[in-house]
Amino acid sequence: MPQVIAFTIPGEPVAKGRARSFVRNGHVAHYTPEKTARYENLVKLAAGQAMASLTPIEGAVAITVRAYFSIPKSWSLKKQRAAALGEILHTKRPDLDNVVKAVKDGANEVVWKDDSQVVRVLASKSYGDPRVEVEVTVRQ
Q1: What pLDDT is stored for residue 80 in this prediction?
Q2: What secondary structure does DSSP assign to 85-107, as a single string?
Q3: CA gap 104, 102 in Å, rounded
Q4: pLDDT tens-place string over residues 61-96
Q5: With 80 as the cut, is the pLDDT of residue 2 above it?
C-alpha cells in the first residue's frame, strides 16, 4: 500500500451541514442536508478513484486538506490579484473545520474504515481555482 494517497475534489468546497430533524407519525427522524450528501458523494467518488483497487486503511492516518475558494468577481482586479497571490486570506464562511468534516465523512469506508482513525489534521483555506486537495498519509 502506498504511504501517501492524494486526491482532488473539484468545485467549490462545501461544509458539513448540521443534521436536520423532522417529526413523522409521532417519531423524530434525522437526515443529512441534500447539499452535504451530494458533496460527500463527490468526495467518495474522488477518493475511490485514488484508491483504485486498494482496500480501506485500517490503521492511523494523517490528513492534509487544502480548500481553495473562488475569488469574488466583484472585487477589483488589484484585490483579485492579491487574493490569487495569497496576500488576502479567505476569512469568510464556511468554517474550515466543517469543510474538513465533510471530507472525512465522505472518505469513510473508502480511504479508511472510519474517520476516528485520523490522528492528525493539517488544513488551510485560501483563494484560487475552486477545489479541495487531500493527502492521506499512512502512519506507522
Answers
A1: 98
A2: TTSS---SSSPHHHHHHHHHHHH
A3: 6
A4: 999 999 999 999 999 999 999 999 999 999 999 999
A5: no
In our burial notation (b when 16+ CB lie closer than 10 A, e otherwise), range 84-119 reads eeeebebeeebebebbbbbbbbbbbebbbeebebbe
What are the extents of the domains in the chain? 4-138
User: CB atoms < 10 A from the CB of 77, how many?
Assistant: 7
Q: Mean pLDDT score of the chain, rounded to an integer?
A: 94
| The listed CATH number (3.40.50.300, 3.30.1330.70, 3.40.50.620, 3.40.50.12780) that belongs to domain 4-138 | 3.30.1330.70
> End-to-end CA distance of the chain, in Å?
12
Whole-model pTM?
0.91
Helices (H), 52-139: 77-84, 96-107
